[in-house]
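Before going further, it is useful to explain how the protein records used in this thesis are read. An example of such a record is reproduced below.

***
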Amino acid sequence: MFIAHLPAGYLLTRFVVVKRGMAHIPSFQYRTFMALGLIGSLLPDVDMLYFYLIDNRQHLHHGYWTHIPLSWLMLSGVTLLIGRLLRKPLVAPAAIVLFSNVFVHLFLDTVAGKIPWLYPVSSHAFVLFDVPARYDWWVWNFVFHWTFLFEVTITGAALFMFLRSRSKTG
């Protein structure tokens, strides 16, 4: 996925905030949850820094720990446990927003990218649709593949929801 992670994060965060009964929270708290959601929607791709700056593109970045679901599952569990031990009631909803967006990122990457969902039990990387290499610049292979319509649809839906929310407040 190239363009849909952030829009999907926006859509999911809006959904989670409304469904968790937080629709009437103060605006600063809503902005905090939205920021956490958007950060979570991009967080697995922080490995791109390592991929380009240190690894010199030697390995597919979906093989790094930031694209291994078990890593995020354990991190979310530790976060929830610490929040509970410290009796911080906002940690749980914040963690739900952040980590649900991380997992949506991983699900979206599974559409045309390889994600090792069962690691460490299995090193098999799952992908829903293989994208053949037809163009010299690898990006075009994904942009001109029919699965890119998923990204366009998600982005369009997010834009629609954002503009609709702006017209209600304006």
User: Anything to note?
Assistant: The chain has seven helices and no strands.
